[in-house]
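Lecture notes, part 5. Sequence design as translation. It can be helpful to think of inverse folding as translation between two languages: the language of shapes and the language of residues. The source text, in structure tokens, appears below.
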């Protein structure tokens, strides 16, 4: 088995797409990781803002969690209506685009793309932070660990939806079992102790109070805590990945995810207050996450603690998988409408949108490097994209129900209207409270992304208008091109290139660019004997040799100048540059710089429309011997036979 097949699996036929669909149990791990994992960093983000209150911070978590829970319920009820109305996938882009117009749709798409990229970075960095809480020696390795986890996620997601769901199934349910177990144990002890349980392991002492409680501080804490709601929209974006009946299974999955998240948030809020737990400074020596303190206070630092922290680390790190499931689908929709290059709409070898996965990995990796893999530095940028997409989606559904007016449309309209108002108010709070902390970056980037999408579509439409030609193929005034063959030496590679050139044109010109730093043979002395006489004996006009000096050791500049001179002096005759090329098959040869590859690229970029570029490949004998050819031939023949037996 080849290495890439071992990593990414064997290619899947298009007819196997149905087998890649998932049920509610697997979908909970594929689409619910983001939302469930936010229970680990959402409350901590709120408590971090309340650090200046000292020990009083834990007393404010309950009210904040109730407010966040109310917004969550409104959003979930609204998205349940969206799934029913858009059974083929009702993501924010689709809903806003169809009901509010193109600009609103692009704004929703840009917001979602931004949110998904940030979600990957935040999820992975929060997972590494959880691991560093249990094993402080890992703290200096934060960024390398983040990038390693990102690489693993990319490989797993390139294997397909079903494989990624199976990989994440165990960590997801272990996380739920461990966290609910810890909350149940803590709740039981709290009841026995009449609301004042003694911690098994005391949490770090709260810092002294530096500020008094103010409404502004509470709003900032609420805005940070709302990061717990990100990922709820994932199910509505990915309805097509469910098995039939997909609408019922998608809505059931959404309710399960939201119910688990709400229970976790409320349980954490109650126990955080009961045990007097506050946040510690992120990235500082002695840092412990809120969940690490909570589980230590409830169960101590025994085997259960390390099992629970391992599950939290795994789910936080893998929560980015939700973005890898949905981001490529957003890219596909944008590509189908020409807002992105068409390559993003094509399914890869494992029936996933590989180009979208690669783009998300690149952007998220850049975010991790820029912000050092520290969660607290990324949180201010987070949530704005999600709540902007929430608001546009809910507003679009209000317009949808007002226009369609199907059965029970008034009930659906009221639910989506409540969701739209709740998410819009939350968006305003998040944007204002986090603006100076870094949210301004997101508020600038999202409109810039909308401008990019619109510009991409205009460019695509302009090029398509230029390409479109309904007239029949014009074969009048055909002229053979002037063929120019760049040479350095006369060898077997040049020999093959010149033979091919003479079959294309009677005007063949070999060009040698001579520089002082390279000791090249003087081809003029032997050109007639090696090339001229054989051509004349074959009844062909002999190729001309042109030697171009280069004082500054440049190769492409003199060649391009010569090509333009030929084009102008011959009455704008077409020119074909036939590039002799040594082709190596070994994998390590791809890491060796190739002057020929650069030459072809630069000719295409700088040569202009009058120049065509062809390759004359030449293979070393040790790489194309009879055994190699027969081996490649057998493989190709076996593939063709298998392909012929497959149903169309």
């Amino acid at each position: 088995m080849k290495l890439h097949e071992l990593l990414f699996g064997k290619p899947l036929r298009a007819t196997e797409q149905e087998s890649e669909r998932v049920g509610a149990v697997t979908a909970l791990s594929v689409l619910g990781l983001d939302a469930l994992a936010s229970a680990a960093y959402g409350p901590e983000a709120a408590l971090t803002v309340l650090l200046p209150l000292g020990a009083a911070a834990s007393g404010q978590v309950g009210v904040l969690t109730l407010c966040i829970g109310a917004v969550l319920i409104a959003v979930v009820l609204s998205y349940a209506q969206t799934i029913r109305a858009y059974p083929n996938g009702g993501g924010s882009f689709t809903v806003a685009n169809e009901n509010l117009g193109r600009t609103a749709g692009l704004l929703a798409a840009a917001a979602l793309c931004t949110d998904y990229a940030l979600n990957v970075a935040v999820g992975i960095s929060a997972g590494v932070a959880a691991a560093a809480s249990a094993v402080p020696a890992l703290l200096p390795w934060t960024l390398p660990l983040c990038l390693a986890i990102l690489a693993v996620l990319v490989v797993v997601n390139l294997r397909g939806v079903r494989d990624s769901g199976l990989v994440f199934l165990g960590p997801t349910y272990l996380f739920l079992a461990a966290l609910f177990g810890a909350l149940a144990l803590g709740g039981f002890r709290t009841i026995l102790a009449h609301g004042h349980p003694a911690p098994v392991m005391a949490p770090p002492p709260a810092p002294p109070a530096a500020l008094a409680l103010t409404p502004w501080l509470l709003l900032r804490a609420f805005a940070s805590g709302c990061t717990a709601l990100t990922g709820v929209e994932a199910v509505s974006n990915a309805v097509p990945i469910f098995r039939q009946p997909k609408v019922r299974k998608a809505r059931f999955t959404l309710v399960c995810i939201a119910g688990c998240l709400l229970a976790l948030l409320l349980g954490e809020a109650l126990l955080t207050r009961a045990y007097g737990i506050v946040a510690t400074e992120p990235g500082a020596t002695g840092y412990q996450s809120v969940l690490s303190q909570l589980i230590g206070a409830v169960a101590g630092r025994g085997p259960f603690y390390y099992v629970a922290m391992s599950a939290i680390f795994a789910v936080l790190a893998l929560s980015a998988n939700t973005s890898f499931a949905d981001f490529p689908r957003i890219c596909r929709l944008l590509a189908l409408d020409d807002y992105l290059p068409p390559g993003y709409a094509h399914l890869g070898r494992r029936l996933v949108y590989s180009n979208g996965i690669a783009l998300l990995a690149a952007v998220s990796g850049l975010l991790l490097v820029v912000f050092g893999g520290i969660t607290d530095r990324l949180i201010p940028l987070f949530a704005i994209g999600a709540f902007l997409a929430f608001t546009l989606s809910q507003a679009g559904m209000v317009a949808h129900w007002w226009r369609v007016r199907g059965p029970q449309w008034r009930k659906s309209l009221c639910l989506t209207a409540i969701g739209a108002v709740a998410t819009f108010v939350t968006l305003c709070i998040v944007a204002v409270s986090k603006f100076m902390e870094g949210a301004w970056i997101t508020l600038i980037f999202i409109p810039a992304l909308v401008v990019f999408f619109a510009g991409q579509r205009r460019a695509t439409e302009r090029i398509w208008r230029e390409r479109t030609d309904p007239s029949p193929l014009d074969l009048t005034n055909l002229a053979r091109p002037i063929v120019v063959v760049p040479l350095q030496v006369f060898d077997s590679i040049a020999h093959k290139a010149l033979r091919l050139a003479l079959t294309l044109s009677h005007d063949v010109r070999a060009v040698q660019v001579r520089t002082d730093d390279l000791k090249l043979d003087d081809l003029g002395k032997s050109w007639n004997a090696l090339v001229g006489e054989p051509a004349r004996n074959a009844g062909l006009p002999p190729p001309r040799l042109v030697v171009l000096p280069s004082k500054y050791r440049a190769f492409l500049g003199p060649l391009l100048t010569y090509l333009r001179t030929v084009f102008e002096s011959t009455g704008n005759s077409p020119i074909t540059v036939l590039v002799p090329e040594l082709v190596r098959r070994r994998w390590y040869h791809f890491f060796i710089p190739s002057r020929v590859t650069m030459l072809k690229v630069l000719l295409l970029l700088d040569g202009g429309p009058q120049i065509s570029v062809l390759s004359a490949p030449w293979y070393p004998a040790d790489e194309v011997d009879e055994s190699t050819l027969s081996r490649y031939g057998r493989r190709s023949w076996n593939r063709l036979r298998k392909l012929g037996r497959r149903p169309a």
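The translated text above is only one of many valid answers, since several sequences can fold into similar shapes. The first strand starts at residue 482 and ends at 487.
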